[in-house]
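Hypothesis: this fold can be encoded by more than one sequence.
Test: take the C-alpha cells below, design a sequence, compare later.
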C-alpha cells in the first residue's frame, strides 16, 4: 500500500479522467475517512456534496446555464479567489502554471476561445466520474478556511491510496447560486470549492503537469537559535 510520502509526491492536479466509475463503497469509505480531518475546536465546519451520475450532470448544466448569462461569474460571487492585485512572486508562479497547462495542450496565447473551452472543462469535472462540492455555513472566518483546506488535502491523499486522482477547483466559487439551485442548498451556505475525483487518463498531457515548487531556501526557515 502507498505510504504518505508517496501519496504526497504523486498527487498532482489531474485535468483528464477516464470514463470509469469509482466503486460506491470506495467513495464512501474515502469520504468517511477524510472526515477524520482535524478542525480548530473540532467545529467540523464543512459539508461534502458527493456528486455522480445525473446529480453531477445537473450541477454542470446549472453552472453552464449561468455561464451563458454572466461568463465572468455570478455578479455578486465571492471575488476573493486571489488577492487583487496579485503581487510578486505569486503572479509569476500563477503565470507559470497557466503557461504549463496551455503549452501541454498546445493552445497558444492568442487562441482565446481554445483557452475558454479548456477552462469550461472545470465544470465537467474534467470528465471525472465524481465531483465534490465543499460547503461551509456563511459567516465562518479564515480559521475555518484553513480547516477546509486540510479536509480537501486529506481527500486528495486518500484518493492516491486508492489509485485515484483529483483536481481541487476554486473556480466553483464563482457560481454559488447555480450550485445552490442544483444541490438544493438553503440560505446561508457558502461554496468554498470543488474537486474532480476519478481515475486519471494517463495518456493525456494534462493528467500530470509536474508544476514546480520553490525550494526550502525560499519557502521555509529553520530557526534554531
Ligand atoms: C484550493 C485550490 C484551488 C484550485 N482551483 C483550481 C481550479 O479551479 N481549476 C484548476 O484547473 N486547477 C485548480 N487548482 C490546481 C492548482 O492550479 C494546482 O494545484 C497548482 O498549480 C499546483 O499543481 P499540482 O497540484 O499539479 O502540483 C487549485 C488548487 C488548489 C489547492
Amino acid at each position: 500500500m502507498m505510504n504518505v510520502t508517496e501519496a504526497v509526491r504523486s498527487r498532482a492536479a489531474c485535468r483528464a479522467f477516464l470514463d470509469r466509475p469509482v466503486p460506491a463503497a470506495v467513495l464512501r469509505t474515502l469520504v468517511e475517512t477524510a472526515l477524520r480531518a482535524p478542525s480548530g475546536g473540532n467545529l467540523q465546519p464543512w459539508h461534502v456534496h458527493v456528486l455522480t451520475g445525473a446529480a453531477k450532470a445537473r450541477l454542470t448544466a446549472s453552472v453552464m446555464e449561468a455561464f451563458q448569462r454572466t461568463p465572468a461569474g455570478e455578479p455578486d460571487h465571492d471575488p476573493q479567489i486571489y488577492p487583487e492585485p496579485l503581487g510578486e512572486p505569486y503572479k509569476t508562479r500563477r503565470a507559470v502554471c497557466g503557461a504549463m497547462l496551455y503549452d501541454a495542450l498546445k493552445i497558444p496565447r492568442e487562441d482565446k476561445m481554445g483557452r475558454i473551452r479548456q477552462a469550461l472543462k472545470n465544470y465537467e469535472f474534467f470528465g471525472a466520474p465524481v465531483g465534490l462540492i465543499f460547503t461551509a455555513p456563511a459567516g465562518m472566518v479564515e480559521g475555518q478556511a484553513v480547516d477546509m483546506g486540510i479536509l480537501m488535502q486529506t481527500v486528495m491523499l486518500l484518493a492516491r491510496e486508492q489509485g485515484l486522482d483529483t483536481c481541487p477547483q476554486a473556480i466553483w466559487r464563482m457560481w454559488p447560486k447555480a450550485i445552490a439551485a442544483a444541490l438544493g442548498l438553503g440560505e446561508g451556505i457558502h461554496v468554498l470549492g470543488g474537486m474532480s475525483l476519478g481515475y486519471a487518463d494517463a495518456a493525456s498531457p494534462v493528467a500530470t503537469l509536474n508544476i514546480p515548487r520553490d525550494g526550502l531556501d525560499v519557502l521555509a526557515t529553520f530557526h534554531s537559535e
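Residues 142-161 form the longest helix (20 residues). The pocket of flavin mononucleotide is lined by residues 12-13, 15, 97, 122, 167-171, 193, 209, 211 (CB under 6 Å).
Hypothesis status: open.
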